[in-house]
Amino acid sequence: MRRIISPLVLVLVGGILFGDGAYIHAKAWFAQVLLERAFDRSVATGQPVKPWSWADTWPVARIEVKRIGASAIVLAGTSGQALAFGPGHIDQTVDAGERGMAVYAAHRDTHFRFLRKVAIGDVIEITRRDGKRFRYRADASAVVRFDASGIDPATKDVELVLATCWPFDAVTSGPERYVLHATLIGSDR
């Protein structure tokens, strides 16, 4: 009897663990579909649209780096819940395309995983929720301490910073951040 029950218990536990993992991936995929829809509705209406009724955030922009096929919906704010679903627009920084520095942050192992492939000279396209599009050229990158980033949101130019944790392949968080800087090169206003 024990020889039959032990394998059945293992199969049951394995099935539960597999189902849990599949559920998490399905939920993440579905969330991205809802974010895309909310962003598209925001562009169409010019109003913030929450991706689901209980969300504490909403889409504010789309980042695209076409050379590497990367795209991500940027959310308002950087709460833990917002960063679980996409890059966040750091409060107290300007919107993309405005004078000053727009700063977006995301996790290195999910939504900003593509930053490791962005090269100096690459074009980064930002579409805001009002439909305005801006093109930036990546012109510098640095690894800095989280408390000494050198980011000046009050710059007089029109700039963009994408920031994430460093190193890209670390398993635990640390004090270093990867900062990719870009300067405006054009817009479709």
Entry keywords:
single chain, 189 residues, alpha+beta, Sortase, Chain: A, eight-stranded mixed β-barrel, 2 helices, 26% helix, 32% strand, globular
User: How many domains make up the coordinates?
Assistant: 1
Radius of gyration: 20 Å
Structural class: alpha+beta
Number of extended strands: 8
What does this structure look like?
This protein has 189 residues and is α+β, with helices and mostly antiparallel strands. The chain has a single domain (2-187), classed as Sortase (Sortase, Chain: A), CATH 2.40.260.10. The protein has helices at residues 2-45, 80-85; strands at 59-65, 70-76, 88-89, 100-105, 123-128, 133-145, 158-165, 176-187. Strands 1-2-3-4-7-8-6-5 form an eight-stranded mixed barrel. The protein is globular.
List the helices and strands and how they pair.
Elements: H1 2-45, E1 59-65, E2 70-76, H2 80-85, E3 88-89, E4 100-105, E5 123-128, E6 133-145, E7 158-165, E8 176-187
Parallel strand pairs: 2-3, 4-7
Antiparallel strand pairs: 1-2, 1-5, 3-4, 5-6, 6-8, 7-8
Short structural summary:
By secondary structure, the chain is α+β, with helices and mostly antiparallel strands. It has helices at residues 2-45, 80-85, and strands at 59-65, 70-76, 88-89, 100-105, 123-128, 133-145, 158-165, 176-187. A hairpin with a 4-residue loop joins strand 1 (59-65) and strand 2 (70-76).
